[in-house]
User: Which sequence fits this backbone?
């Protein structure tokens, strides 16, 4: 092992231009994959304020299906009230509206922000860290109190360094008192993303409370993860029994309580979660194939350089397998060096992405998990691109190789 | 000469097959990126059909009435009517109109029309009479809607020039039934210049159809957005004053005011950024391939020193050796590009690029071919020069 390592470094140092070309390709490939991993990881991993989402089910679409048309919308508040709030044996259930744009006028400036209307249970399912103040309470929800929780970014825009708690902001022409401030939420956290949260009971008319289809999303927090399948079955039974208001146009209703990954898959493909996983893996391999081909042709063309070395080793009885192992090892080592460089570059790219705020409020990061995935990808790439050239090298005839005449 | 080169290439078929595969993949990547870029640039240069500057959108937040029964009155109609009157009363406002799916918004209403066995996809929008003035549409034929249309037996429709061509060909669309199979159908009263709701990045030929809503008489679900054209340079203070005034007039209605220019910025940024990221990644990929190719060719020349030396020894000039190496590169590239073009040509047949016009597709292929030839020949330049400097005496001794 030790001698393999020494040998590998000697080989890499021999033709610096080629080592540079190989490393350049490897680094670019791995930077792209590591950044993509960081983004996917950030999107799918439970993280504050959605860190309990491994035992949360969501419902965000309801489809009315008929022979001639299909209408797909968010559930209305009435739907969630009737069929989600009442699920048995759950820890909490909540309804929140899609984030909608609002304008807050203050002094002579205007600030655009996102507004969510929700209930008190929302604050028990999502674990927001309160920088100041508190969430609104069930009592305030009941009364339709004009209170609001705002994000730190909005607080900064509206009040700069003056105290915000207890201040009033104008939404829809009414004054809402600020009771809490929470950190900014990235747009990728669809349940948490907003700048202003107010009780749903502050809507101007109460029509929404009876709507079957509307612009709300339902959340269910189960007691344990093992409880999720039971709740999904229970809900599926309820969907079957739902009355259809317009039986002439629609024959049945489709709706499901999804885990986080399932709901993305439903959005992306209207299908099951494993297909999304497969798609991500296939895209990654497809993306790797060009750099891998590049590395393979480069490695193959360097066989000649190693011919006499291979010849000597073969003449002294090295098995084909040990030669293959050595060359693959060298290639993996090269990709790992490329991997190390790419982590540094990826960190810079991610910092730039965060600064540019391309994805609103997102703070992607290179954590241990992404690091682990990155190493795995680098090793896979090393094996993927090293196997064929190694096999070709090991097949060199000892006599030809010693003469230096590889073909 | 070519046959001879072919033989040389065939002689090293295994290594060359990998090179061909690599060039082929690069060609496909370059083709996809260049086609996207070309299509984006060509779309950007086309006129929009409206003017997005100095337009505010006042969106009324109110749950839509389930079902559009056509004749039933929307309780929101008098509210919208009153809001528009109040807005138009301010001297800073040029005009205002209600609109169902404003430009640069996420909402779009689409329909499929069957006509003479042909399927035509079109975009619909429902607007009130002053919409054309607010958005500064350009009328090409006939007339726009007017309040007198309340008395018509048939609903009037205004279509854009693209839809007029698709529906009626060279005939004059004005006065035609919108749906020719249905005698009760709406009538086309005017044609406007092509209107692209999704702005600069939208494909041309959106096939827009505008339907009229009356503010004065019941006509089903009302549009929930009011577009307001303000005078250039109107201050933000006016926006707040307007909002306060309207809240006082309609205390039970929630609404928000946004600026069309800001919506445009966000809308375009969100859609152009992915193309930009893809372009940057591809640029790196291709530069990586170029470096790799240079390396491989360099190695090949080193390996074939004796062969080249022999050619020089029997009288070949440095230039002809150089031509041979470059000729081999060009041949390998050509083989890869023949396969690549054959693959890419399948795309229109499969209908994958339904949104890309034929001329953009052609530009994409030609530009990609040129790019790949340029890159591979550049990659061959240094190795072939190296080959031409081989000294016969040195080379033949080379071990």
Assistant:
């Amino acid at each position: 092992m030790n001698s393999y390592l020494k040998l590998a470094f000697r080989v890499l140092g021999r033709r610096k231009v080629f080592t540079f070309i190989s490393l350049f390709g490897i680094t670019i490939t791995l930077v792209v994959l590591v950044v993509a991993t960081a983004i996917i990881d950030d999107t799918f991993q439970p993280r504050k304020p959605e860190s309990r989402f491994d035992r949360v089910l969501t419902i965000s679409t309801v489809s009315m299906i008929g022979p001639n048309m299909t209408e797909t919308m968010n559930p209305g508040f009435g739907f969630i009230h009737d069929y989600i709030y009442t699920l048995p044996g759950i820890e909490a259930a909540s309804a929140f509206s899609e984030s909608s744009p609002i304008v807050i006028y203050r002094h002579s400036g205007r600030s655009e922000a996102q507004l969510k209307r929700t209930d008190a249970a929302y604050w028990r399912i999502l674990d927001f860290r309160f920088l100041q103040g508190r969430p609104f309470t069930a009592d305030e929800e009941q009364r339709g109190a004009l209170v609001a929780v705002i994000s730190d970014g909005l607080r900064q825009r509206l009040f700069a360094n003056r105290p915000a708690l207890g201040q009033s902001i104008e939404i829809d022409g009414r004054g809402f008192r600020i009771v809490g401030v929470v950190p900014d939420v990235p747009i990728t956290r669809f349940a948490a993303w907003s700048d202003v949260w107010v009780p749903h009971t502050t809507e101007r008319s109460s029509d929404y409370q009876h709507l079957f289809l509307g612009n709300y999303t339902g959340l269910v927090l189960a007691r344990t993860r093992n409880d999720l399948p039971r709740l999904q079955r229970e809900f599926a039974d309820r969907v079957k029994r739902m009355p259809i208001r317009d039986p002439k146009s629609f024959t049945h209703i489709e709706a499901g309580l999804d885990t986080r990954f399932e709901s993305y898959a439903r959005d992306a493909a209207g299908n099951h979660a494993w297909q999304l996983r497969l798609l991500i893996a296939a895209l990654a391999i497809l993306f790797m194939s060009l750099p891998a081909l590049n590395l393979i042709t480069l490695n193959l063309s360097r066989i000649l350089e190693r011919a006499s070395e291979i010849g000597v080793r073969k003449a002294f009885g090295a098995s084909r397998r040990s030669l293959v192992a050595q060359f693959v090892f060298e290639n993996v080592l090269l990709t790992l060096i490329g991997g190390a460089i790419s982590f540094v570059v990826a960190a810079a790219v991610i910092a730039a992405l965060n600064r540019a705020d391309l994805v609103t409020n997102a703070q992607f990061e290179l954590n241990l998990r992404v690091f682990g995935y990155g190493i795995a990808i680098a090793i896979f790439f090393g094996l993927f691109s090293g196997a064929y050239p190694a096999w070709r090298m090991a097949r060199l005839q000892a006599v030809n190789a010693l003469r230096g005449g590889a073909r | 000469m070519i046959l001879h080169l072919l033989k040389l290439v065939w002689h090293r078929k295994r290594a060359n097959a990998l090179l061909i595969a690599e060039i082929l993949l690069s060609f496909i990547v370059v083709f996809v990126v260049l086609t996207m870029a070309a299509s984006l640039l060509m779309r950007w240069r086309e006129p929009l059909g409206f003017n997005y500057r100095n337009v505010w959108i006042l969106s009324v937040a109110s749950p839509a009435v389930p079902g559009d029964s056509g004749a039933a009155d929307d309780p929101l109609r008098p509210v919208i009517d009153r809001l528009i009157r109040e807005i138009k009363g301010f001297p800073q406002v040029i005009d205002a109109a209600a609109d169902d799916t404003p430009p640069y918004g996420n909402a779009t209403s689409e329909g499929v029309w069957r006509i003479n066995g042909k399927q035509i996809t079109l975009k619909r929008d429902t607007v009130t009479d002053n919409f054309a003035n607010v958005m500064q549409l350009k009328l090409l034929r006939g007339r726009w809607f007017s309040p007198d249309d309340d008395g018509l037996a048939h609903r009037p429709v205004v279509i854009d020039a693209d839809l007029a061509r698709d529906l009626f060909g060279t005939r004059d669309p004005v006065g035609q039934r919108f749906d020719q199979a249905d005698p009760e159908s709406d009538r086309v009263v005017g044609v406007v210049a092509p209107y692209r709701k999704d702005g600069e990045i939208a494909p041309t030929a959106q096939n827009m159809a505008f339907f009229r809503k009356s503010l004065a008489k019941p006509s089903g679900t009302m549009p929930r957005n009011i577009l307001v054209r303000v005078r250039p340079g109107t201050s933000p203070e006016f926006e707040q004053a307007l909002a306060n005034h309207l809240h006082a007039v309609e205390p039970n209605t929630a609404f928000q005011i946004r600026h069309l220019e800001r919506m445009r910025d966000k809308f375009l940024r969100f859609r152009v950024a992915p193309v930009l990221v893809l372009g940057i990644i591809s640029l790196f990929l291709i530069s990586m391939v170029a470096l790799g190719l240079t390396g491989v060719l360099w190695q090949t020349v080193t390996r074939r020193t004796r062969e080249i030396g022999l050619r020089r020894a029997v009288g070949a000039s440095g230039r002809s050796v150089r031509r041979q190496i470059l000729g081999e590169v060009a041949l390998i590239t050509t083989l890869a590009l023949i396969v690549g073009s054959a693959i890419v040509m399948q795309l229109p047949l499969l209908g994958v690029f339904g949104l890309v016009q034929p001329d953009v597709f052609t530009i994409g292929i030609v530009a990609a071919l040129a790019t790949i030839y340029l890159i591979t020949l550049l990659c061959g330049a240094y190795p072939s020069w190296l080959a031409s400097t081989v000294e016969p005496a040195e080379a033949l001794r080379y071990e």
Observations:
- Chain B is about 50% helix and 15% strand.
- The longest helix of chain B spans residues 260-303.
